[in-house]
Amino acid sequence: MAVVLLVVHEDRPEAVAQADSLAATLTAQGHSVVRSDAAGFDGSAPVGDLDLVVSLGGDGSILRAVHLLDGHRAPVLGVNHGELGYLTAVEPDDAGAAVGRTLAGDHDIEERMMLRIEVRRADGTPVIVDHALNEVVVARTAASQTVRLGVSLDGEFLTSYAADGLIAATPTGSTAYAFSARGPIVDPVHRAIQLTPVSPHMLFDRTMVLDPSTEVSMVVLGQREATCSVDGRELVVLGEGDSVVCTVADRVARLVTFGPRDFKHLLATKFGLEDR
Description:
The chain has 276 residues and is an alpha+beta fold. The longest helix has 16 residues, at 13-28. The protein has 2 domains: 3-106, Probable inorganic polyphosphate/atp-NAD kinase, domain 1 (Rossmann fold, 3-Layer(aba) Sandwich), CATH 3.40.50; 113-251, Tumour Suppressor Smad4, CATH 2.60.200. The strands form 3 sheets. Strands 7-6-17-14-9-10 form a 6-stranded antiparallel beta sheet, covered by helices on one side. Strands 13-12-11-8-15-16 form a 6-stranded antiparallel beta sheet, with no helix packed on it. The chain has a 5-stranded mixed beta sheet with strand order 3-2-1-4-5, sandwiched between helices. It is built from 5 helices and 17 strands. The mean pLDDT is 92.
């Protein structure tokens, strides 16, 4: 029998109700069900023992599920209780059947590139290592106007940005924050790092699409502090000389699909392109 983790958007009653129903059904079938609470994985089963993670919410819930897995290879099945649902595989009416098909092995897996993020203090001391499915953002604090960030690629200084922030995104993250900052839409199974400035105060305001092997370093220049956030989770406040180094991760997110994902259809549906 399988061990299934349910990651539930606790603020959406319909997601909670469906999680209750799925948990009852799976338990009756002899499976072991673990649920996350609003704070995250409750630790009642080792992550490595999980056979499946079912996310009931929007894309944010899938990001949380991937974070909770911390590199373990259990697949994530997304049930769309959100608005856009770029990462989800099925709608709520199909959730029960989708879980059954996945546990029976009747599914596909789409692997998504992730980023490894290392935060270093000004003296070079590493203080945090994290991983992103969507993006890492180095941005001004609420109290400051802009932040000045120096960017190096593969250890070679490129330029400095005066901006509200910089986004280093995966192709999956190209339709998230980077999209709202006018970055390009990239097929999510592609492999690249997109570096997009947010409201830059300079002429060079375009996204750079970099080879995935590139090491991207962003360092705080000057006395204005910045924040570092990963997939919407604020990690740390950065001071002068502190840096955030991004590289391709040695892990991937494994998302459940049923047949190849039609990226063109997804774009047309989510952006209402067919109605134009």
